[in-house]
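Hey L., structure's done. Input below.
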Amino acid sequence: MNRILSWKEYFMALAKISAKRSKDPNTQVGACIVDEDNRVVSIGYNGFPKGCDDNIYPWGRDGEFLETKYPYVVHAELNAILNSNKSLKNTSIYVTLFPCNECCKAIIQSGIKKVYYESDKYSDTDIVKASKKMFISAGVELIQIDKTFELIIK
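Output:
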């Protein structure tokens, strides 16, 4: 008998699949927003804003600020929030990488109450420390999901 994915595994798998849409050669991140009835509300991945050609803008991490991806990329969490066409009050977001401080503010302001995340590889940075401080202050629940399964699509 096939093993059935739990809801958490299923939604994190959707976030992982969404991350594969990102053209970022270094960090592909995906996000999936889910309502209280386990219905997908929105999905996002990190990339440039609509109308900004992926072949014109830089994907690099090093160099002068305007020659890097950082001033141009929209993070997966913000894309998922902006892609939604309904209220996000009391929803949950599944993200492959712990949210930065800017995405944290958007998550809190949009009414999302739970953040499920897989990787916390930047936990020692001030950006993530600021995120965690704001999430805790705002009463947003943080749940790390172990990398206990690998999605295999046949």
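The mean pLDDT is 94. DSSP finds four helices and five strands in the chain.

-- N.
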